[in-house]
C-alpha cells in the first residue's frame, strides 16, 4: 500500500516593527509556547520554523523572519523581504506615535516587495502588549487605520499571555493559502 503524499507548502512570513514591540516574543510564543521577560535584542534577523498540519493531506511550513527593528529603511530590508508570502507588522499598544512608525514600515514593505502573484504582500497589523492596562490607541482608530492603510486585518495580541497569537497566524496563513 502507498500513502498519499501530503501536500506541503512553504511560506515565508516577515515580522517587522520597531524595537521592543514584542516581535521575538510573539514568534517564541507561537513556535515554542514560551515567554521570557528579559530583553535580548535581535541583531539582523532571527529565523524560526513552524510546521502546521492544516488537514489530513496538507502541511504548511511557516518560515518566520523576525527582523531587528533597527534595520528599518536600510538597504538590508530589501534583502530580507525577498520572496515573502506574508507579513506581520507589529506595534506596542502602550506607546504613542506607534502608528506613525507603522505607516513607515508598511511603506517600506510595499515599496520593496510583492507577493509571488504580483499583488501587494498580505500584511496583518498586530497591536501587541494588550495585557498592559494603558492603551494609546482605541479600537475604533485601529479599525479605520488598518483599512486606510490596506492591511488584511488587525487584532490586539499579547505574546506574554498568549492572546490571539495562534489565531492571528491562522488568519494570515489562510489568506496566503487562498492566494496560492
Ligand atoms: P522585539 O524587539 O520586537 O523583538 O521585542 P521583544 O520580543 O524582545 O520584547 C521586548 C520586551 O517586551 C521584552 O521585555 C518582552 O518581555 C516584552 N514583551 C513582549 N511582548 C509582550 C506582551 O505581549 N506583553 C508584555 N507585557 N510585555 C511583552
Ligand atoms: Mg527581537
UniProtKB/TrEMBL annotation:
It is a lipid-anchor. It comes from the Eukaryota. Its main location: membrane. GO terms for biological process: endosome to lysosome transport; phagosome-lysosome fusion. The keyword Hydrolase does not apply. The keyword Plastid does not apply. Keywords: GTP-binding, Lipoprotein, Membrane, Nucleotide-binding, Prenylation. GO terms for molecular function: GTP binding; GTPase activity. GO terms for cellular component: late endosome; lysosome; membrane; phagocytic vesicle; trans-Golgi network. Belongs to the small GTPase superfamily. Rab family. This is Ras-related protein Rab. It comes from Diploptera punctata (Pacific beetle cockroach). The chain holds residues 3 to 182 of 212 of the full protein.
Amino acid at each position: 500500500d502507498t500513502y498519499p503524499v501530503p501536500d506541503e507548502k512553504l511560506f515565508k512570513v516577515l515580522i517587522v516593527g520597531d524595537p521592543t514591540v514584542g516581535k521575538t516574543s510573539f514568534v517564541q510564543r507561537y513556535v515554542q509556547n514560551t515567554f521570557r521577560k528579559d530583553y535580548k535584542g535581535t541583531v539582523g534577523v532571527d529565523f524560526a520554523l513552524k510546521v502546521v498540519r492544516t488537514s489530513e493531506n496538507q502541511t504548511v511550513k511557516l518560515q518566520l523572519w523576525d527582523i531587528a527593528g533597527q534595520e528599518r529603511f536600510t538597504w538590508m530590508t530589501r534583502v530580507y523581504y525577498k520572496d515573502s508570502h506574508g507579513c506581520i507588522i507589529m506595534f506596542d499598544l502602550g506607546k504613542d506615535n506607534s502608528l506613525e512608525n507603522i505607516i513607515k514600515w508598511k511603506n517600506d514593505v510595499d515599496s520593496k516587495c510583492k507577493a509571488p502573484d504580483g499583488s501587494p504582500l498580505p500584511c496583518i497589523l498586530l497591536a501587541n502588549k494588550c495585557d498592559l492596562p494603558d492603551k494609546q490607541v482605541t479600537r475604533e482608530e485601529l479599525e479605520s487605520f488598518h483599512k486606510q492603510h490596506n492591511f488584511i486585518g488587525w487584532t490586539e495580541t499579547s505574546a506574554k499571555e498568549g492572546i490571539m497569537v495562534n489565531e492571528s497566524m491562522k488568519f494570515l496563513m489562510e489568506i496566503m493559502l487562498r492566494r496560492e
